[in-house]
Amino acid sequence: MTLLTLFPLLYCVFVLTITYNPVTSFTSPTPSPAKVCTLQNSFQPAFVARGDYVIGGIFPLHYNQEMPDLNCTYRPPPVNCNGFDPRAFRWVQTMRLAVEEINQSTELLPNYTLGYKIFDSCAYPLTGQRAAMAVLNGLNEDDTPLCSGASPLLAVIGESGSAQSIVVSRILQPFRIPMISYFSSCACFSDRRKYPTFFRVIPNDDYQVTAIAQLLVRFNWTWVGLVRGDHEYGRFAVQGLLRELQDTKVCVAYQEMIPLLYNRQRALEIIEVMRSSLAKVVVVFSAEGEMTPFLRDYMIQNITGIQWVASEAWVTASVFTGSEYYPYMGGTIGFGIRKGHISRLSDYLQTVNPQMYPNNLLVKELWEALYGCKPSLSSSTQLPLCTGQESLLEQHSAYMNTSSPRVAYNVYKAVYAIAHSLHNLLLCQPGSGPFQNNSCAQSNNIHPWQLQYYLQEVTFNIAGEEVNFDLKGDSIPYYDIINWQRGTGGNIEFVNVGLFDGTKPAGEELVIQEDRIIWAGHQSEVPVSAVRRGEPVCCFDCVPCDSGKISNQTNSIECTFCPEDFWSNKDRTACIPKEVEFLAYDSLGIALTVISVVGACLTMAVFAVFFHHRNTAIVRVNNSELSFFILFALTLCFLCSLMFIGEPTPWSCMLRHTAFSITFSLCISCILGKTLVVLAAFTATRPGDNIMKWLGPKQQRFIIFSCTLVQVVICAAWLIDAPPFPSRNTQYERSKIILECSVGSSLAFWCVLGYIGLQACLSFVLAFLARKLPGNFNEAKFITFSMLIFSAVWLAFIPAYISSPGNYADAVESFAILASSFGLLFCLFAPKCYIILLKPEKNTKQHLMGK
Q1: Please, what CATH class does the domain formed by 3-203+343-372+402-460 belong to?
Q2: 285 three-state secondary structure
Q3: Which of 128, 156, 672, 711 could join 121 via S-S bond, C-beta 3.0 to 4.6 A?
Q4: Dist CA 188 CA 742 (whole Å)
Q5: Mean pLDDT calculated for residue range 528-553
Q6: What's residue 537's pLDDT?
Q7: What does the H/E/C string look like for 691-707?
Q8: Dihedral angle over CA of 712, 717, 718, 719, nearest 10
Q9: Which of 202, 205, 213 is CA-nearest to residue 507?
Q10: Which is more confident, 20 or 578?
Q11: Which segment of the chain is annotated as a signal peptide (predicted)?
């Protein structure tokens, strides 16, 4: 197994890794770690100090990255980090100062020393992953006992951004190494199942979004914009704020996201949205890294008059204190991490210079950032040379601002939390310890998980503030309310104008001194969130609720669903009963009724014609009894379509399907009998052939009765097992209730249609065989054509019926009944009526029989 199997990396693997023997466990001894462990790559720390116990530190010393070509065909060069951050460098020095103070203390960890390894994460998850892998390793193979014993690394101070902390925490979890973040406030870290080793000395963002929501409500800012960074911190913060605003009158005009890898074109699009929006209050959840170039582009666009509400991630960033920011950012208000006091920090920061650390590239970059010069010829920049002995002054606030340390103070507390936990661990008395069999940790072989136990329980005071962690690893929620005001030199000063105390009862946490606040545009009056000329200030442009929802309150931000049998009215203010729809006697229903009655009347007229001319040749030759049966069945077929019109009831649903199926089966059975008689009569090969005695009138009646009886049995079984019933369809069109007849049993319904189809196919085949029989009037030809039309109608019916909703399905079925009935009527009887009524001279046996 390798660490690569534990930590799948993005793209090609170019971070520091260790490989070791598959059979070697974390606790089993190995004779020579140098022969087993092999460093795959190297990543040098920013600062290293040896000690009895080592802690790691990960800081965003740069805020921009240049990604190498990652095509996985060769080992890529490392990520090039640029954009040096003096503020983060101050955090590093704060960690080093805290370790030195602890090592010099006679009360905390006496006789023991702390060491550290500090790495640069470049404020990016991928490079943060590289730093996490590097902090796990020693500086060489001989200094890497991670494979063979307890971890030499007891805890990690880091990371700043939540996105980076997610990566680092997951890498440390398999080794059960606790991690204390000084600046990762994402609410996601409170999930102990996902982040069991994570602690932080900064409040959970759930408290910050509660504070911002209360701030927006307090100043009646009801129309605001949201801008966030492309990371977990921004995503969870925005989700939390939207959740907090649900029961308020505050509405969000827009949501925009600054890309993680900064893109100027996308930034200009966001700025244009801000410029054109009526929302003049903008809440920003972002980190200092992406805000720096974004605000630079924002100022180039010369936009003023926006009231910024800043999150704790950038509200106290020293990089924004320059005088050039005030016309655009002055008046910004936000929630900052609670400030503290570190007595020796200012003096300690001034001890750092290029002469003291001649080989440290970060110190050289600090000088280049502060003085705009390079302290040695080895630097590749084009800046002028300087001595490296220049004095650090208060004007270098990005690095030297120690008057109100906030993030640096969190770093300071995190180091002391580890020291106090380790101190408590070493005070453990054998036999009264918290581990198995009341044992204590061995001072020369402490495991990180043992330190985590004491870290969870630690409580100590620092500068009068109590520090501890709850069961989720969170600390006590305090925020200072920060207002950006103009200082005496024109620079921006961070003025404390209030407090948010998360330990107080709900609704009482926010304390603000409003008279001390300077708003955007250097105004003393609270800005308005949105103004429309000639209209009162309002939260949003009112829009109606969606269909099916109503709201009976003015300016409500929620709509309620109507009950199932109700729908919203036109104004979406009340629920009214849904319109009930079925195939009624409206225009469509009346048209079908007229066609049905006309068809029945035509059939009875043909019946009358045939009865009146029953003794003529054409009626007698075509089997008058079967013709009368067919006409009777067709009349019923026309009339049964009326069953599909009107409000469905249990009886009408059962009757419409059974009547339709039995009448059509009767009609096709008669045609089948007639086809058999015609085929038998014209295929007799010699006089006296007795085939017709098997198809006499009695036999014909038996064929009709037996074929119809099969359909009657199917229908009876259908009605007994699962009869059709009226149903209310609310799915197809939610605004209406469609009354329709459910078939009950789909199998029975298709069996009924299938049986009719089988009869029609059999009649068609028999008539087709007799289509070329001699004679001037071949009945088989007309039966063949009638069956073709009948089959075409019902084959077209099936997809039309399946795809038609509600009352249209009934109309389709009714239309199919009428069309097929007319097809049978005209194909079978129109030619005969033509001869009877218009060509009586042809109504003779000689003419009909032909040759």
Answers
A1: alpha beta
A2: strand
A3: 128
A4: 51
A5: 64
A6: 47
A7: HHHHHCHHHHHHHHHHH
A8: 90
A9: 213
A10: 578
A11: 1-25
* Cα 451 from Cα 430, distance rounded (Å): 16
Nearest Cα neighbor of 328 from 605, 132, 521, 535 is 521
248-274 pLDDT tens trace? 888 888 999 998 888 889 999 999 999
pLDDT tens per residue across span 275-290: 998 889 999 999 888 8
Q: Which residues of 179-195 are buried (b: 16+ CB within 10 A; e: fewer)?
A: bbbbbbbbbbbbeeeeb
Annotated domain spans of the chain = 3-203+343-372+402-460, 549-577, 587-849
Residues in the chain: 851
Q: 806-838 and 587-612 are packed helices; what angle lies between their axes, rounded to 10 degrees? A: 30
Can you tell me whether residue 220 is helix, strand or coil?
Answer: coil
Distant-in-sequence, close-in-space partners of 608: CB < 8 Å, separation ≥ 6: none
In whole angstroms, what separates CA 466 from the centre of its chain? 41
CA atoms within 13 A on the CB side of 848: 19
Give, in degrees to the nearest 5, the angle at Cα 298 between 297 and 303.
140
* Buried-state track 16-33, b at ≥16 Cβ within 10 A, e below 16: bbbebeeebeeeeebeeb
Condensed to tens digits (0 to 9), the pLDDT of residues 20-47 reads 333 333 333 444 444 455 666 667 788 8
3-class DSSP assignment, residue 664: helix
Confidence of residue 413 (pLDDT cuts 50, 70, 90): very high
Structure token digits, residue 123: 């404020």
CA 573 to chain centre: 31
List b or e across 121-139, with b for residues whose CB sees 16 or more CB atoms inside 10 angstroms: bbbbbbbbbbbbbbbbbbe
Structure-block tokens of residue 599 = 């068809």
Its pTM surpasses 0.85: no
Cβ-proximal residues to 640 (8 Å cutoff; 6+ apart), any chain: 656, 659, 660, 663, 817
Q: How far apart are CA 774 and CA 682, in angstroms?
A: 8
3-203+343-372+402-460 shares its CATH topology with 587-849: no
Residue whose C-alpha is closest to residue 48's, from 103, 96, 95, 116: 116
Residue 815 structure tokens: 């239309």
Reference 819, options 666, 599, 645; nearest CA is 599
**CB contact at 8 A, 186 and 205:** yes
Let me know: does 131 contact 121? Beta carbons within 8 Å: yes
Q: Which CATH superfamily is domain 587-849 in?
A: Rhodopsin 7-helix transmembrane proteins (1.20.1070.10)
Identify the sign of the CA torsion 200, 206, 207, 213.
positive
Q: Is residue 90 a contact partner of residue 128, using CB atoms and an 8 Å limit? A: no
pLDDT given at position 421: 95
- Using CA of residue 594, residue 596, residue 602, residue 604, what is the dihedral sign? negative
> Distance (Å, rounded) from C-alpha 827 to C-alpha 274?
75
Between CA 103 and CA 112 the distance in angstroms is 7
Handedness of CA 455, 459, 464, 465 (dihedral sign): positive
Could you tell me the two tokens for 118?
């500090």
pLDDT tens digits for range 110-134:
989 999 999 999 888 888 888 888 8
Burial of 299 (0-12, 13-18, 19+ CB in 10 A): middle
